[in-house]
Structures are given as structure tokens and as C-alpha cells.
Amino acid sequence: MYRILSILLFAFGLAITTDKVYDNSWALVVGINDYQNENILNLRYAVEDALSIKNMLINQYGFPRKNVRYLIDQEATRSNILKAMSNLTEAAGENDRVVFYFAGHGETQPLGLEEGDVGFLLPFDGDADDLYFSAIDMGELTRISNYSKAKHMLFLVDACYGGLAAMNTRSIKTNTPNYLDKVIQENARQIITAGGKDEEVLEKDDWKHSAFTKNILSGLEEKKADSDEDGFITGSELGSYLQRTVSIDTDNFQTPQVKRLTTHGGEIIFHSKLDKKDKENLNAEEMFDKFLEKLDQKYQNNQFQIDENQRVVKPGSMGLYKINPTLKVKIIRVFYQPSGLMYEVKFKPSIGTDDEWTQSTIIKIDEVLEIPGVTKYGIYNLTAGTVD
């Protein structure tokens, strides 16, 4: 029990000391339904998606309204987007975060003499037949971002395209002591796109959103992306959540891509701002007392007890994903979090595909189904943190 209590107290200590993770927050939010070029198919919910993202950043995550630039339809020209991005990244300080969100069309162009592709975002005045001069090469935004002093930057691109080069990073593993403190201190340039090359962004009238943005909102607004339930959502947690949920919503026709644009291993952090009343009436010591009261109640209800000899799937073994059994799950590791035992896993479709495994994500141990004759089990040793 002492081990578990220590973890929980440490987690809460972070919640107090990192309430002000950033000095300031900035965002550029772009949504394009109606394109100037009649040959480009118009979208239905890109503007609604952008508005929802803007409101969430301001109302839930404390982005100052004056720091959020919002461009839709005819305002979202190539010139305006690049100028806004340049101004925003120049204004951001060294302890600030920046979010760039784009909902619209994306295109992929193969390179001429070299292998690979280049990904483009189509602005309002873009021409799919003249991408190099009328569209925005993602490399342009990357170059602009690299001039910024901002500590953390996240690109959320609700468009499908290839041409994103992954960087070899000094990624910090989630089980590293003081993990959250470490990733907060290190710089980050992260990108999550709605899908890969030749995939299509799915919109539905039932959702009033695209699949990608619908799940960004559920992941951040409803905190469903907080896989370890520590009160903080990292860029990687959000990316893993989107890979899983968007694939499910689109029957595996659309799989978000999660990558880093530089070698830095930091993480952008999303932590809901405190209620105004709490800020006025509670100091850190009082907040801590309230936390201990809740912790006491949870212990009395046995919410944090786990079996010392818990049966788990062995790392390296495979099963099926309970929420979507068409996905095969490979167990990378088993570890303890305040919310219970968790698996770090990778996914891929279970039938008739040569697709590579996705990047790793975190799920609960009861979300893996057995494949008879394939799934191998062991016993989790809580003290040692190993599977025997």
C-alpha cells in the first residue's frame, strides 16, 4: 500500500507544481469548408470543427482569447496562414506552448528524383494542380516553427497525406522517474494528422464533425485521452488515443499518423485550468488536504487494491482488442499506474493485411481478449514490476 500511496502523492504533487506549466499559450486555428477553386470538393464540417477546437482551447485549457488566431474560409489564404503562423511563433516565449490546428484538404505529391512524398495543406486559394506555388508545404510550417523560442508545439492536421518524415528522438519512456517533469522541461515539436497517404477524412452528419476532430474533442474535453489518469494529457497520449478511436470509428479506413518534427523528446501538456472559485478559495495546502480526503475514501472502497498475483498477458504475446476485435494487440510491457495495471501495446488489423504495427499506446489489462493457442500468460509481480 505504501508503494501505491507514494505514487499517488507524487502524482498529486505534480498537479500542484505544474498548474502553471506554461507562461503563455498560443494557437492558430484554421477551418475551410468552401474553396475558391470550383474543382476542389467543398467540405461540410471543417469550419464547425475549427470553431469547436478554438472554444475548447480557450474555455477549458486557458488559452487567452487574444492569443488565438482564427481563420476560416476566405480568410484562410496561403498568405494569411503563413503570416499568422510566423507572427504567432515569433511572439511565443521560451516557456510557452503553441497549437496549430488545420481542418481542410491535404494533398500528397511524389518527389521527383528522390524517394518519398511531400505533404501539402490546401488553403482557401489553393490549386490542387499547382501545389508547389499555391499550397502550403508542411515543411514551411516546420521551418517557421523551428525559428520559434516556444518550448512545445503541436500540429493537429485534420487532413490525410503522406510525406511526413519521422525523426530519431530521445523519447523519454513513461515509466522514467519524474517522467512528467522531464517531458515538460524538454522541447517538443509534435504532429498528429488525420490519416496517411491515399486515405480520406470521414465526416458524418450524426457527428457534426470529422472522425478526427470528434475524437480530439472527446480526448481533451472529456479527458478520455488521459490513459494513465494522472490529470495531464501529453501529446503522445492524445496521439495514441486518436490512432485507436479514429480507426474504430472509420472501420480502419483512416489511421492517424503521430510523429515528431525534431529530435527533442519533450511533450506538450494539456491540463484543465482550475475553476475560478477554486483558484480564489483554495491554496495548494488546502487542495492537498482535499486530495487526501478523496484518497482515503477510495482506499476504503478498495479502488486501489490489486491482486499481488495478477494474471496478465506476457510481453511479446498477442491478443485481440476487446473494444474492436478486428484489431490485433501486441503486448510491449505491463506496468502499474494509479488507476491499476496497464498494458503498453501496438495494434494492427487482425485479418488479411501486411500493415505494420502502430506506434505504442496504453490500454487497461481487461481490454485484451485471448487468442486461443496464441496468447501467453504470466503473473505480475507488483514489488518487482515484472511478469514471471
SSE order and pairing:
Blueprint: H1 2-17, E1 24-31, H2 46-59, E2 68-72, H3 78-91, E3 96-103, E4 106-110, E5 117-121, H4 131-134, E6 136-137, H5 138-146, E7 152-160, H6 179-185, E8 188-195, E9 203-204, E10 209-210, H7 211-221, E11 233-234, H8 235-249, E12 257-260, E13 269-270, H9 276-281, H10 284-300, E14 309-313, E15 318-321, E16 327-337, E17 340-349, E18 361-364, E19 368-369, E20 377-381, E21 386-387
Helix pairs in contact: 2-7, 3-5, 7-8
In the CATH scheme, the class of the largest domain would be Alpha Beta
**Could you say what the CATH architecture of the largest domain is?**
3-Layer(aba) Sandwich
Tell me the domain tally.
2
Mean pLDDT metric: 77
Please give the order of strands in the largest beta sheet: 2-1-3-7-8-12
Number of strands: 21
Please report the number of helical segments.
10
Helix content: 25-40%
Contiguous uncertain segments of 5+ residues: 1-19, 162-179, 274-282
Helix/strand structural class: alpha+beta
Quaternary structure type: single chain
Shape assignment: globular
β content, as a range? 25-35%
Biggest β-sheet, characterized? 6 strands, mixed
What is the rounded Rg?
A: 22 Å
CATH level-3 fold name of the largest domain = Rossmann fold
